[in-house]
Amino acid sequence: MPTASDRGETSGSDNRDRKLIEKLVMSLQSEQRKSRRWGIFFKLLTFAYLFAILFMLLDPFEDGLTDSVEAHTAVIEVDGPIADDTEASADYIVGGLREAFESTAAKAVILRINSPGGSPVQSGYVYDEIKRLRDKHPDKKLYAVISDIGASGAYYIAAAADEIYANEASLVGSIGVVSGGFGFTGVMDKLGVERRLYTSGENKGFLDPFSPEEEEEVDFWKEVLETTHQQFISQVKAGRGERLSDDPKLFTGLIWTGEQALGLGLIDGIGSTSFVAREIVGHEELVDYTRQASPFQNIIDRFGVAFGAAIADQLMQSRLELR
What we know:
- The chain is of the alpha/beta class.
- The chain has helices spanning 4-58, 90-102, 120-136, 153-158, 185-191, 215-240, 258-264, 273-281, 295-322; strands spanning 61-63, 72-79, 106-115, 141-151, 163-166, 171-173, 255-257, 269-270, 286-288, 291-293.
- The strands form 2 sheets. Strands 2, 3, 4, 5, 6, 7, 8 and 9 form an 8-stranded mixed β-sheet that branches.
């Protein structure tokens, strides 16, 4: 028969067990609440992510123009290298040009250029679109204004304008084509590195920097560059016409100051964007039609990285907990 002492010990043991069970249950409940909170968080995050993507698809660009209905001069920036993945890509420039030409309040269009050039393909797209828009809207003039530099592909674009203006110290021209790289065969020989290149197609390893140069390949590539150069020259001549001088150095790839460019017929005058709007167009108010990436697109780019990192972190924590 159990004594009072035994009953007391049993009761104390039961209390400890009960408290232990209660702590365990509370701990499990706490973990479940945390798990639910994480689940809700990631569901909201997913919905926000999908909503932002949908918004970006519906409005992928932010137009630079204002809601001005008064007569003004439209301005489109061509800033930085001209390439497919930059804000000086053909898509951005052409989008702004179309809106500016279609606006009845925009009495003229100015391309404000500050670019060393870039892709001949992107420049060609813009050049062709300028020509098309000028033919479609013959009463609306397009002016190119070069600030610090308008060289190579940037001048290619400018040549399509009705007139080109620049500062006396602007850098203008560089009508040429360049392609460069490095050869590492000498370094490889010194280091004892062997090049192993396997191709299907006689010229698939064309101009491989880790293999010796082949004279035939170099000659072929020079022909490609020369063809592109002649296309460039042809478009500049078509755009500038008889305004160009007959200086033999004009198409050699040299770059000139604005003052020199004026004498060579590469530009039509010395002046800034404000000068052209005020003195040439006659409408001093400037309205920016430059197309830019939507702020939501920038948020999505950053958000996508953060979202992926958060998911990876959570999966890692879950895996560690399961271990």
